Automatic annotation (TrEMBL):
<protein>
    <submittedName>
        <fullName>Sucrase ferredoxin</fullName>
    </submittedName>
</protein>
<dbReference type="InterPro" id="IPR009737">
    <property type="entry name" value="Aim32/Apd1-like"/>
</dbReference>
<dbReference type="InterPro" id="IPR036249">
    <property type="entry name" value="Thioredoxin-like_sf"/>
</dbReference>
<dbReference type="Pfam" id="PF06999">
    <property type="entry name" value="Suc_Fer-like"/>
</dbReference>
Length: 283
């Protein structure tokens, strides 16, 4: 799963009870002109638009929520909408997030029309998390990586976890919200590029684990065909500098998701070495 989180700076979340088609946003029934402006704004600022809804059957309230999660700033700004045009207020927030809540939002992909795996594996995870954090949990549309369902995205820090089940999801999220990531379940952080995500996970495995924001930045340099040298700047229990060698590998073709019409080969990122140059010998 290493390095499979979407590399985005902001998330636009729009409460929508469904049903969701394969293209959830495009077939939401929201006026096309409004959707076009919202999607353009999120893409212009390195974002992703997702539909969200509470787990389980919900009454269709006329007033719904929207939110902009600023992964870089670590805040979430909330608003409400009744008419489609009300959503356009989010465009200004996407362009210049004013800061807001730091309370966590837990997204669980349950987009069954996109891939059945997400509904079959995601909904039990959403239900389990909602029992523990009822105000924080939302089912969401496609976040990428259907083959890793159940998928959970923690906002506003933008951390992706995968292969979660009902039994282990609560413990994983509880540890994360307590300030320590769970490397075994990590897909990556949306703050980083996929190659840097793989390096960061290796740093947590080798020297931590640390917190979700303890890898502060990454410099990625090519080291040949599908090979990279990544230098991470860190804080917390991780060394101040961590260097990792990463290479891409291609798996044999297989049916990767429940919906897959044919076998395809997936690329994965493998860390061949991770080290802390400034660490004392033997550490």
């Amino acid at each position: 799963m290493n390095g499979t989180a979407l590399h985005v700076r902001r998330f636009l979340l729009i409460e929508h009870p469904g049903p969701w088609g394969f293209d959830a946003v495009g077939t939401s029934g929201i006026e096309p002109e409004v959707i076009d402006q919202l999607v353009a704004a999120t893409r212009r600022h390195g974002g992703r638009t997702l539909l969200i809804r509470r787990p389980g059957r919900q009454d269709h309230e006329p007033r719904r929520a929207w939110a902009v999660a600023d992964v870089v700033g670590g805040t979430i700004s909330w608003g409400t909408w009744e008419q489609d045009a009300d959503l356009l207020a989010a465009c200004d927030v996407i362009a210049d997030p004013p800061g807001g809540s730091t309370d966590p939002v837990l997204l669980v992909c349950a987009h069954g029309r996109h891939d059945t795996c997400c509904a079959v594996r995601g909904r039990p995870v959403a239900a389990a998390l909602a029992e523990r954090w009822p105000d924080a949990v939302w089912e969401c549309s496609h976040v990428g990586g259907d083959r890793f369902a159940g998928n959970v995205v923690v906002l506003p820090d933008g951390t992706y976890y995968g292969n979660l089940g009902r039994d282990d999801s609560v413990a994983t999220v509880e540890q994360h919200l307590g300030g320590v990531v769970v490397p075994e379940q990590l897909r990556g952080s949306s703050m980083l590029s996929p190659v840097a995500q793989a390096a960061a996970i290796a740093a947590h495995e080798r020297f931590g684990p640390g917190g979700p924001r303890d890898v502060r930045s990454a410099v990625v340099q090519s080291a040949g065909h599908e090979r990279w040298r990544v230098e991470l700047s860190c804080t917390g229990p991780l060394p101040l500098t961590v260097v990792a060698d990463v290479e891409a590998q291609h798996a044999a073709a297989a049916l990767l998701t429940c919906r897959a019409p044919h076998a395809t080969s997936a690329r994965s990122f493998v860390v061949t070495d991770v080290r802390a140059p400034s660490a004392p010998a033997g550490s």
